[in-house]
Amino acid sequence: MSRRKLVAGNWKMHGTSADLGEVRGIAEAARRLDGQVDVALCVPATLIHRAAEGVPGFAIGAQDIHMADKGAHTGDICAAMLHDAGARLTIVGHSERRDAHREDDTTVRAKAEAALRSGLKVILCVGESDAERDAGRALEVVTAQLRASLPSEGATAVNFAVAYEPIWAIGTGKVPVTHDIAEMHAALRATLVEALGEEGAGVRLLYGGSVKASNAAEIFAVEDVDGALVGGASLTAADFVPIVEAAAA
Ligand code: PEP
């Protein structure tokens, strides 16, 4: 099945109003390559409204949401608020949140379901640690993570994507060999089809972890890699646009 590639940036805790020019530069490239590749940028919550207003039609996203629709949750932000601010998608289950905020699969699933209920598209992250890979347990751990964090309803090929992000590859400059990426993506594809039937064949499977302009083309050529989730190299248009162009090629 042919799936148009999706390249999403994750700015993490980087970016203030001084960086809105980078958002405009990235959105401009997305407009130029419209129809060849889908592009999204997940900025800090404080920038969502200004970023979205500055680049109408471009997909600005959040990096996390609260699982409840509203309530007494000091400091948290719910899906409806992010949607109202201009977000059109959100990441859930990033390993930095699973680790630093002790988010387990049940929490991640609830967050994905809350996002879909509010009309936000979802990028759900899964990935193994280096110890799990060294122990030969990567496939088992990551497919189990996907099964347990998959929304119980509402996920479609249009509103839902999965990002395979080996934890040891995030921000380290290390990237799995293409054979390992292909093997993992095939296992995740099978898991998606098992859980979602036909729809699972259309869900995009992104790779994330130290993607750069210099390795993007090789990664995008791997079977069942339908795009990328990019951290460090998404912070500037100069670094991110060549990755987007590689996906469009
Ligand atoms: C990420 O954190 O989602 C990520 C892939 O980061 P980096 O590209 O910097 O490894």
Commentary on this structure:
The protein is of the alpha/beta class and 249 residues long. The chain has a single domain, classed as TIM Barrel, CATH 3.20.20. 44% of the residues lie in helices and 15% in strands. It has an eight-stranded parallel β-barrel, surrounded by seven helices. Helix 1 packs parallel to helix 11, helix 5 crosses helix 7 and helix 10 runs parallel beside helix 11. The longest helix is centred in the last third of the chain and has 19 residues. The two termini are 18 Å apart. Phosphoenolpyruvate binds next to strand 8.
The ordered string of helix (H) and strand (E) elements is EHEHEHEHHEHHEHHEHEH
Total strand segments? 8
Second rung of CATH, namely the architecture: Alpha-Beta Barrel
Query: What's the total helix number?
Result: 11
Major β-sheet profile: 8 strands, parallel, barrel
Query: How many domains would you count in the coordinates?
Result: 1
Ends apart, CA distance between termini = 18 Å
Q: Topology of this protein?
A:
Elements: E1 6-10, H1 20-32, E2 38-42, H2 45-54, E3 59-62, H3 79-85, E4 89-92, H4 95-100, H5 105-117, E5 121-126, H6 130-134, H7 138-149, E6 160-164, H8 178-196, H9 198-202, E7 204-208, H10 213-220, E8 227-230, H11 237-248
Parallel strand pairs: 1-2, 1-8, 2-3, 3-4, 4-5, 5-6, 6-7, 7-8
Helix pairs in contact: 1-11, 5-7, 7-8, 10-11
The chain binds phosphoenolpyruvate.
Phosphoenolpyruvate binds next to strand 8.
